[in-house]
Write a structure and sequence with these properties.
By secondary structure, the chain is mainly beta. 9% of the residues lie in helices and 44% in strands. It is globular, with a radius of gyration of 22 Å.
Length: 370
């Protein structure tokens, strides 16, 4: 009888260890932990996004035409807001993709926009970064104009919310004395003033060999943390901060440096040319280890990672998933197109249990549930 009980306990322990195996070590330096992950998964994951609808910008109704959709956000009722750069307005849709209304229009007057470069929703207030006018324009979710926040040095780019009273985005600042343009990922207060710089990069005046990928550190924000890629081509590292910009821990994963193929480099340069890059002829040799970061509805970190490409996975979107610093598993989405570089014409966003995928060139937004 005693032997049977011991066998049952042993079987239970083994079964638990198979479903959730520890696959990392922790190293602590100056109070900051680093989770060092291997490539072996610790959990089985079954994530299969299913397309539920597409918002097609090539519409007979002129109000619904999308000429250059750039950013998508959702409100507390899951209504969808699409920022259209070329039309200088916002299209609002319900959660099923049905068109509701147009917010704002092109112009210089109160509540009007001039080729805006970003949008974020915080507590159902819409903040639109309007670089040509050097201001943030605010609306409620019905489209009523709420006022402006003027930013003399220019608006931040790629803005996300940090909690309910802060933001994060790339801030450009001219340094005439050193003949360079600083481009720093920074935490901003509710007036969009810099609280803390988290990454620092600079462009020298007259430099024609700028690689956009060296400037943009992939990042994302959860309900309690900020995740920033180290933006390396030979190291897989993510630095994690609290909302005050204090480092809390790091995530590492084993990674092999990958050469970018000629076809991939051509695709990257084509994307940069379509996005308006003045010198789209980068001579990149290696891929960035990490191309994008997201947080899902379970608080898990999604990492769009570079891989060796072949005919079998040439177009697949490949994601590593982490929870609390630990690598859970790698998932492959064969119904979602992915590439191993930042593509400003095919941006991806994740809100709640949905994936929003832009095709800016075709002017549409595909929505998936997972």
């Amino acid at each position: 009888m005693k032997l049977n009980i011991l066998l049952l306990v042993a079987i239970f322990i083994l079964s638990c260890s198979k479903t959730d195996q520890k696959n990392y070590t922790i190293k602590e330096v100056n109070g900051i932990k680093t989770f060092k992950n291997g490539t072996k998964p610790s959990q089985k994951l079954n994530i299969k996004p299913k397309k539920i609808f597409t918002i097609n910008g090539d519409n007979a109704d002129s109000l619904q035409v999308l000429k250059m959709p750039m950013k998508v956000s959702i409100d507390s009722n899951n209504n969808i807001y699409i920022l259209d750069v070329m039309q200088s307005n916002i299209k609002k849709y319900d959660s099923n993709g049905n068109f509701i209304k147009v917010i704002s229009k092109h112009g210089m007057g109160p509540g009007e926009l001039t080729y805006p470069n970003g949008m974020v929703l915080v507590k159902d207030t819409i903040y639109v970064t309007n670089q040509p006018q050097k201001k943030i324009v605010k609306f409620d979710r019905e489209g009523n104009y709420l006022g402006d926040i003027f930013i003399p040095n220019g608006t931040p780019q790629m803005v996300q919310k940090v909690g309910n009273n802060r933001f994060i985005g790339y801030v450009s600042l001219m340094n005439s004395e050193e003949q360079k343009l600083n481009f720093n990922l920074s935490i901003l207060d509710k007036k969009f003033k810099v609280v803390k710089e988290l990454t620092q990069k600079a462009i020298k005046f007259g430099d024609t060999n700028i690689n956009l990928l060296d400037l943009i550190y992939p990042y994302t924000v959860s309900d309690k943390e900020i995740f920033i890629s180290s933006n390396s081509n030979d190291k897989y590292v993510i630095n994690v901060y609290d909302f005050n910009g204090k480092p809390t821990y790091n995530i590492e994963k084993r990674y092999k440096k990958l050469t970018i193929s000629e076809e991939e480099l051509n695709n990257f340069n084509k994307a940069m040319k379509k996005a308006g890059e003045s010198n789209p002829n980068s001579k990149i040799k290696y891929k960035k280890a990490i191309n994008d970061l997201f947080v899902d509805n379970q608080g898990r970190l999604w990492v769009r990672v570079s891989v060796d490409r072949s005919k079998n996975n040439n177009q697949n979107c490949i994601i590593d998933i982490f929870k609390d610093g630990a690598f859970l598993n790698r998932v492959v989405f064969d119904n979602i197109t992915g590439s191993d570089f930042f593509d400003p014409l095919n941006l991806t966003y994740i809100y709640d249990n949905r994936i929003y995928l832009f095709n800016t060139e075709d002017g549409n937004l595909s929505v998936y549930e997972y």
